[in-house]
Each structure stands twice: as C-alpha cells, then as structure tokens.
Amino acid sequence: MSGTAIVLVLVLPNGQVAEAVLMSGSGFDVLDDAALNAALGCVFAPALVGCNLVDDAVALPFKFGSGVSKNAVGRYVGPRADDGSEMLNRRRALSVPDANDQR
Q1: CA distance 23 to 61
Q2: How would you class 51 by CB atoms within 10 Å of its CB: exposed for 0-12, middle for 13-18, buried for 19 or more?
Q3: Phi/psi zone of residue 66: left (φ > 0), alpha (ψ -120 to 50 degrees), beta?
Q4: Which of 24, 33, 35, 87 is the most buried (most CB within 10 A)?
Q5: CB 58 within 8 A of CB 84
Q6: Alpha-carbon distance 14 to 75, whole Å?
Q7: Whether the model pTM is above 0.90
Q8: Measured between alpha carbons, how far is residue 89 from residues 38, 49, 82, 93 in Å?
Q9: First-to-final CA distance of the chain
Q10: What are 1-31's pLDDT values in tens digits?
Q11: Contact assessment for residue 64 and residue 34, using Cβ atoms and an 8 Å cutoff
Q12: Cα angle: 32, vertex 37, 38; to 5 degrees
C-alpha cells in the first residue's frame, strides 16, 4: 500500500490540535486513519498575529510508501489552507473560549 493523505488541522493557541479533517485521501482507509491519528497527536508552535496567540489551520501531507525514501521528511504546506478559514469560523461560531479572551 502507498499513497498520500492530506489532513487539515485546527491548531489552538496552545499549539495542540483541536480538530483534524481528511482533505484528500490516500485511497486506503487504513492509511487515511493513520494520517488522521498522527495529525491529532501533533503539537505545533503557536501562531501569532502581532503579540496575540491565535488559532490557525494547517494542511499536513502524510506520504505512505512501501520503502524508505531519501525524501521521507514531510513538507509544511501552511500557514493556511483554503478550507482553513471555514474550520476557524465554525470554531468561533461555537463560541469556544480563546486562551487570549480577557472576559
């Protein structure tokens, strides 16, 4: 089995992944599930706008193959995928508290 799955993740201001969505499947459910699970376990440096920590959306490619490649290291696709704003807006609409909220 081989293929590439692209996962869109919502990164919280603390660097943790809040949500992961499969944008493009590898063609194999088991590989897609592995990509989603790996994405949920990632931790990122928080995104900054000015001096404020903010949510961010990042598209992560997970390449699966039958052997080890010289190019086995993933490639950062961000900072924002086209679908990222929809995920961020949905989170804001649900009124999820932001770590920077001063209320």
Answers
A1: 10
A2: exposed
A3: alpha
A4: 35
A5: yes
A6: 22
A7: no
A8: 24, 17, 13, 6
A9: 50
A10: 899 999 999 999 999 999 999 999 999 999 9
A11: yes
A12: 95
89: left (phi over 0), alpha (psi -120 to 50) or beta: alpha
Half-sphere exposure of 64 (CA within 13 A, CB side): 19
Q: How many CA atoms lie within 13 A of 6 on its CB side?
A: 13
Which tens digits make up the pLDDT trace of 32-85? 999 999 999 999 998 888 998 999 999 999 999 876 554 444 444 444 444 556
Quick one: tokens of 72? 């086995």
Specify the length of the chain in residues.
103
Using the structure block, give the residue that is written with the tokens 């994405």. 39
